[in-house]
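FAQ: What does a ligand-bound record look like?

Like this one, built around iron/sulfur cluster:
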Amino acid sequence: MSMLTRARTPRTPDTSGTPRTVAARRPPLTVIAAMVVLALVVIAALLHPLVMDWALTQNVALGPVGTGVEGHVFGTDQLGRDVLALSLAGARSALGGPILVALGSMLIGVVLGGTAGYRGGSLDFLAGRYTDLLLALPATLLAIVVAGVLGGGYWVTAVVLIVLFSPSDVRLVRAAVMEQRPLPYIEAARVSGISGPRVLFRHIAPNVLPIVVANALLNVAFALVAFSSLSYLGLGVPPGTPDWGRQLADGRDLLGSNPMVTIVPGLLIIATATAVNLVGDWLEGRLNSEAVER
Amino acid sequence: MSALLSVTGLSVLGPRGRLVEPVDLALDPGETVAIVGESGSGKSMTAKALTGLLPSGVRAAGTMLLGGRELDLAAGETGWRGIRGGGIALLLQDPFTSLSPVHRCGDQIGWGLTGSRRTRSARVATLLAEVGLPERVAGQYPFELSGGMRQRVALAAALAADPQVLIADEPTTALDVTTQKDVLDLIAGLQRSRDMGLILITHDLGVARSRADRILVMYAGRLVEQGSAAAVLDTPGHPYSARLLGCEPPLDRQLTRLASIAGSVPQPYDVGAACAFAPRCMLAVDACVAAAPPLVAIGPGHAAACVRTGEVLDDPVGPTVDGPRPEPVESPETGEVIGATGAVPLLRVADLTRRFHGTETPALDGVSLEVAQGESVAVVGESGSGKTTLARCVVGLEHPDSGSIELAGGADGRAQRVQIVFQDPYSALNPGLTIGTTLRETLRAAGRPAELVEGLLELVGLPAAYARRRPKALSGGERQRVAIARALAVEPDLLVLDESVSALDVSVQAQVLNLLRDLQQRLDLTLLFITHDLAVARQVSQRVYVMRAGRVVEHGPTDAVLARPQQDYTQRLLASVPSAHRTED
Amino acid sequence: MSEGRARPLVAYTLRRLLGAVALLFVLSVVVFSLIYWAPGDIARNLLGNRQVTPESLAAVRRQYHLDQPFVVQYAGWLRAALHGDFGRSIRTGEPVGGLIRDRIGVTAAICGLAFVLSVVGGVAAGIACAVRRGSWLDRILVSGSVLGVSAPAFAVGLLLLYVFAVWLGWFPFYGTGDGLLDGLWHLALPALTLAIGLAAFVVKLTRAAVARELDADYVVFARSRGLGRGAVLRIVLRNAAVPIVTSLGLLLAYLFGGTVLVEVTFALPGAGALMQDAVEFKDFPVVQALTLAVGLIVTLSAVVVDVVYLLVDPRLRGRVSHR
Ligand code: SF4
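The answer part, i.e. the structure of the complex:
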C-alpha cells in the first residue's frame, strides 16, 4: 500500500463458530512467529554500536560482489560494505523513528482527542478542524514536500510524520471517549459527584487505553513503511547512514551484480512491518474480545 | 384431526450443551399458539429452529411435518428452500433492524415475488393495503417510517409468499403500547382472513392471554406446561407458570407487595436430569431432582411437567396482599393534591423546555411537576414523550433551554442530592471495577467512610461477599441492585428511576420493585419513577404524570388517573394494555 | 418530487466544491510558505552553475521577485497560476505546465491500471472472505492482506523487478514501450506493484463491511422469507457498498504517494518521478505546481466520493436535505 495509508478498516468481532474461550487468549502460530521476528529486530537495534564499525567499513576496490565471497555472507554493495552488517545496523533507524512517531502521535491523540471528546464545545470544534484539514491534504505528498524542502533529516522527518499521523489518532481517541461518555456507568459516576478528571482517568481511560495502545502498535508499522519510503527517495536519513530504505535505493542499480543488496533489506522491511501489524491486529482483537466478555 | 404443522422432538444444541430439550408442537390452521417464557427460556431458539435460521455454532434436531411435507430440522440450506416463505415465515422483534436500510419498502416487500414488474408492484400495493398502509409507502425508505409502520412493512414482506404458518418472535416488544395493540390486532385479523397458523413468541403473559388459543410455557430450555390459554393462565398446573403469573403487576389495583420468584433462571445445559425449577420452587421434594419430570396430562389438552402437579394448584402465588396505603394530602398553597406523606415540595419543576438540535418537535414543551418529600411520583409516557429528557434535566445531565428546577433547600449541589438509576443493567456498572471499588469510590465522593460498602450491599439485599465480584459475574437484577446501592451511597434526597426495571424479566422486576418500596419506607426516600409501563406505575406511585409529545397531558393521584382517566390519550393508553389476569368485571 | 430531492444534492455539492477550493488555497499557502522559509537561499539555487556574485544574486532576486515581501510574492504567483502560468522550471527552464502535461500520461496509466486491478480483485476477494469466514480461503487471503498492507511499494517493486525482469526476464527492466500492447507489457509490473498494496487494503475493508452486514437482522429476515443465497448477497452488497465506496475515495488519494515510489523504482518518466527530481533539486515552481495538481485531484475525488455516498445511502440524503 502507499506509504502513508493508515486508514483503519472497521473490525468485526469474529463470530465464526467456536465460542470465545481460553483458546482465543493463546496467540496463534503466526503471531508467535511475528513476535520472534520482532524480538530479533529489537536485538539487532540494541546491538547497533557493536555492528556500526563493521557496517561502515568500505572496500571500494572490492565493489559490489555477490554472495559467497569470503567473509561476506550476502556479498557487498557498490562501496564494498557488507550487506549483512549494513542490514543489521539499519535495524535501529528502522525501529527508532517509527516508535517515536507512534508515541508522539499517540500523545497528541490522547491529549487533544481525549479532552475534545470529553469536554466538547469549542475545543472539540478546533480539534475537528485540525483533523479535517490534515486528513483532507494529500499526506504522502506533503511528507515528501516538507521533508524535501526542509532539507530532510531524520528528526525533521519524524516531526513531520507525527503531525501527519496525529489526526487519525485524535479521531480515534475522541470517538472512543465520546462512545464512553453517555454510558450509564459514566453518567452515574458524574451524577454522584465524582470529579471530572477522576471520571476521565479512572472510568474512561482504562476502557479507551487498550484501543489506543493497539493503534500505536499499528502506527509503528505504518511509520516504518513511511520512513523507509522517504529514505528510499533520498529524504529522511543522511547519505551513508545504514538504513534499509537507502540500501534498497542503492540496490536498484546493483540488481545485476548483487541482488542481495536489495533482497535482504527489502525482506527485512516487509517482515518487520508485517510482524508489527500481526501483533497489533492480534492485540486489538484480544483487547476487544476482552471488553466484550467483561 | 390433521394438524397444519406438527413438530416432533425439536431440540437445539449449542456449543456448551443443549439449549432446548426435545419439544413437540402442533398447530392447526387459523390457530394461535403462544410460546411464553423469560429470557433464557429457549423460546427464541425454538422459533429460529423452526425456520432453520439458528446462529452459527448452534444446531437443531427433530422432524417437522408441514402440510404433508416432512423435513429434518437439521437439514441444510437446500432442504429449507421450499419451506421458508411459502410454508413458514418469520417476523422478527426489532423493525428497526429487520429491514434493509438502503432499499425502498416496496422493493423489499417485492423481493420474494415473481412475475412481471407490473404484477409485482400491484401485488405490493395489495399487501400494503392488507397491512393498513397507503401505497406511497412502497416508495419510501424504512428510516422515513415510524416503528409501527416499519413493523407493518415487515409483516407485508413476511406475508408476500402467502405462508401457511407465521412465526412472530416478540413482534411488538420494541413498540409503544398503543402501537403494539394496533399491530397485534392487525396480525390477528390477517391470520383469520388467511386462515394461517400463528406461533407467537412472547415474554408478555398479557399478550399471550389476549391473543393465543393455546399457550406453551418454557423454562430453562424445557417445556414445562401447555394447554389452552384459559387453562394455563387460570388454573396453572406448574408452579413456575403460577408464580410467573403472580409476578405480573396488575394494572387495576395496587398491591402492597408483589409476588416474586427468588433466584434466577439457570442455564439450560447446567440443569441435568432434574426439574429445572427445583432450586426456586417452594414445593420441591426429593423426587424433583431425581429425574426430569415428564409432561403429565392434567386436563383435556392440558399438561404440566411437575411431579406434584395436581396438588399444587391452589396455593401457587404466595402473598399478594391488597393493603392500606397513605392518603394523598393537599398542598397548602395551591389546594392541589400533591403529596402523600408531607406537603413540602422537595422538587419543583416549572415550565421546562428543551429542544434538541435538528429535531422538529421539542423534547420538552413547558413541563411543570412537583414532588413532595417522601412521595413516590411516576411519569408515564410512550417513546418520544420527553419523559427521559425530563429525568435527565432533573439530575443535571441535560440542561433545559428555559424553565426552572428547584430543590427545597437551594439548588446547590443538586448533583449529589438527586441520584439516578438507568434502564440497562449491563452498562450500569463499570466492567473493569469490582462492585466494592465502585461503591467505595462513590462513598468517598460523598465524603462518607468506605466501610459502609457492606451495609449498602445488605441494604439492597446482596451478600457482602459481592463486593469482591466484577459486574460480569452478576445477573441483570443483581446489577440493578448494585446500581441502586451506588445511588444510595451519597444519601440522596431524591432518587430518579429511569425505566430502571423495564429491561428485567418479570420475576426479577417484581423483586426490584419490592426492594424499592422497602427502601422508600426505611430511608424516607423520595422517588421519581420514569416508566412506559402503566402497571409498574400503578404499583409504585402515589401520584402520576402522563406525558405526551413533551407536555403533561394529565396528572393526579395514581388511583384516580388510572381508574378514571379524564383525557382521551390516557384512556387510549390504558385500553391498549393487555392484562395477564382474568378481567374481573 | 425529483426536484425536491435534487436541490439539496446540488446545494450540497456546491458547498463541498467551495470547501475544496478553500482547501487548495490553504495547501498552496502552506507549500509556498514552506518554500519561502526553507533553509538555504533560493537565489543560489536559481543561479545553478553560474557564478555566484552579489550582483548576480541581486539580479536573480529581482527577476524572481524574491526581494518582495511574502504576501506580494504569493499574490504574484497566485495571479499567474490562475491564468494557467505556473512559472518555469529552475532546472530546465521549461514552462512547468508543459513539463507536467508531458509526464502525467504515464502516471495516469499506472494509477488507472492499479486502481482497476485492486478494486476488482480486492472487492471480489473481500466478499469471498466474508461469505466464507473462517475457511482456509479466508485465512489465506486475510494473512495475505496483512502482508500486502505492510509491504512498501518500492520493496515489492524491486523484488518483482528482480524476479521477473532480471532473473526470469519475462518483463522489461525499464521504459514505457511503444503502442498499446507493448505499453501494457511495460507498465504491467509497476501497476501490479501499486495494486498489491491497494488490493490488500480493499480486501480488509470489503471483508469487514460485508461481514458486518451479513450479521444484520435483515439478512435473517430475508432468508426467512425464502430468498436464495444470490438474492440475499445482492441485498447485503448494496448495504456494504456505503462504507466500501467511501474508502475507495481514500485509495484514489493515496495512489499518488505510491506512484512516486513505483515510478522511481521502475525508472518511468511520470509525474511521480518528476516530483522526486523536483524535490531533490529544490525546483520549487515544479514542486508547487505538482502539489496543487495532486491536491486538486485528491480534493475533487473526495467531493465525488461524498456525492456518491449520498446517492447510495438514502439515510444520509434525508439528513442533508433536512439541514
Ligand atoms: S417438579 Fe418439583 S421442583 Fe419442579 S416444579 Fe414441580 S414441585 Fe417444583
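Follow-up question: can I read anything off the structure? Yes, for example: The pocket of iron/sulfur cluster is lined by residues B 238-239, 275, 277-278, 281, 283-284, 288, 293, 306-308 (CB under 6 Å).
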